[in-house]
Structures are given as structure tokens and as C-alpha cells.
Design goal:
Strand order of the largest sheet: 4-5-6-9-8-7
Largest sheet: 6 strands, antiparallel, barrel
CATH topology of the largest domain: Rossmann fold
Helix content: 25-40%
Number of domains: 2
Shape: globular
Radius of gyration: 18 Å
Structural class: alpha+beta
Distance between the termini: 24 Å
Mean pLDDT: 86
Order of helices and strands: HHEHEHEHEEEEEEHE
Low-confidence stretches: 2-8, 221-227
Length: 227
């Protein structure tokens, strides 16, 4: 779903071997397609002429007939705000434009080839992290990381969907990352400590790309966990 013809055509070409593809240049056209044939996955730009991608995601996720399809939203590369809005809306995946063929196909397969979507590849890590939450800063330890989020051990209890600010590097002290994140799950591990799964909110395309390369380069046999 894109209002730029060349992006619609490229997306169709990339995915044509995965099954039938319905194209739409706006949200209203996509909704009409869904009425005729409920989709297994929806791929939509965050910025369409009639309805933004976040609202499109919410409508597909809550519609009583369309079957709660997986949703991939496409963000502008220089807009951490796009990424955050997509995650808050419930998108299963957020990709940055311009689309790369392999990334799109990999995401679609990860979300649709199995009864339960596979998690993103993750690299084990043992590095310090600073978490800012509720007006305070706490130190923690990163246990694993992916381009979509991380798992940390932290000396505090978090609430589901709580939003925090993060400050960390990948153990090389070369570049500090400062995304925001949303708590996805949490469980106690010892007195005063929780293990916490977080999904990145405000993060840009360059940072996501560097995290993706880190996982691939440092741990070529990375493991996955459910998202």
C-alpha cells in the first residue's frame, strides 16, 4: 500500500512468488480489497494521502472480519518518530524506505511462514546499559540485542508497555545509541532485579542498520526468540 506507483510495483515484484498480491494507492482502496479478500499480511507506507499508516494498522488489527493480519509499516529513514508511531500502533514489523528486496521478503516470511511469527535474529551480549525511567536513571546489563529491541537485566520493576530511554554501546565504546523503547515483557530473576524485553520506539534507519550488521557480523549463528 503506497501512493507512489514505482514503490507499489517494486513491492509487488518482490512478493509475487509468495502468493497473490493486491495493490492499493490509498487506505480506502486497501480496505475495499480486504473486504473482497482478507489479507494475511498488510504492507503500508506510514504516509498515505487519506489515512496514516498507524491508523491503518489499528483498523486492520481490530476489524472483526479481516482476520487480524500481520502488518508491516514503512517509515521514512530519517524519522525515529515514524518508527515509534508504528510500534505503538501494533505493527508486527517496521522497515525503512527505500525498501531492500531481501529485507522485505525476509520479514514477510518471518511473519507468515509459521503459525507463530519467528522472532528477529538476536546476538548474545554482556554490556552495560543506562535506562532512564520515571525521572530516574538506572544501570543494567544487556543480555541480547536485535535490530528491533533488546533484553536487559535491570534493578527495578517495569510495567507492561512502559516507555523508557536507553543509553548503550555494543561493547566497543565507539558509538553510543540513544533510542527510546517500550517494555514488551518482564519477569523477576532475583531480589530487586527484572529481566525485561524491550522493543525500540524512536530509532533511525542508520542505527537499525548498524544493529542488524552487528548481529550478523559478530554472531553469524544468531538465535531467535518470539517477538
Amino acid at each position: 500500500m503506497d501512493d507512489v506507483p514505482i514503490f507499489r510495483d517494486l513491492g509487488s515484484i518482490f512478493l509475487s512468488r509468495s502468493g497473490p498480491v493486491d495493490l492499493a494507492d490509498c487506505a480506502s482502496a486497501a480496505f475495499q480489497c480486504a473486504d473482497e479478500r482478507p489479507p494475511g499480511i498488510v504492507i503500508a507506507d506510514m504516509h498515505l494521502p487519506d489515512i496514516d499508516g498507524a491508523e491503518i494498522c489499528r483498523r486492520f488489527k481490530t476489524h472483526p472480519v479481516w482476520g487480524n493480519p500481520r502488518v508491516v509499516l514503512l517509515a521514512r529513514p530519517d524519522s525515529p518518530e515514524d518508527h515509534a508511531a508504528a510500534v505503538r500502533a501494533g505493527a508486527d514489523e517496521v522497515l525503512f524506505k527505500p525498501l531492500e528486496r531481501d529485507a522485505l521478503i525476509s520479514s514477510v516470511r518471518r511473519l507468515t511462514d509459521f503459525a507463530t511469527p519467528r522472532g528477529l535474529p538476536r546476538a548474545k551480549l554482556d554490556a552495560p546499559i543506562e535506562i532512564a525511567a520515571r525521572g530516574q536513571r538506572h544501570g543494567g546489563v544487556i543480555r541480547n540485542v536485535s535490530r528491533g529491541g533488546l533484553v536487559v537485566d535491570a534493578p527495578m520493576h517495569f510495567n507492561q508497555a512502559e516507555e523508557v530511554s536507553l543509553h548503550f554501546d555494543l561493547g566497543d565504546n565507539e558509538r553510543r545509541f540513544t533510542p527510546t523503547a517500550q517494555v514488551v515483557w518482564t519477569k523477576p530473576i532475583q531480589d530487586g532485579y527484572d529481566r525485561v524485553g524491550m522493543r525500540f520506539l524512536e530509532i533511525d534507519a542508520m542505527t537499525v542498520d548498524r544493529l542488524d550488521h552487528y548481529v550478523s557480523d559478530h554472531f553469524p549463528r544468531s538465535w531467535s526468540v518470539p517477538a
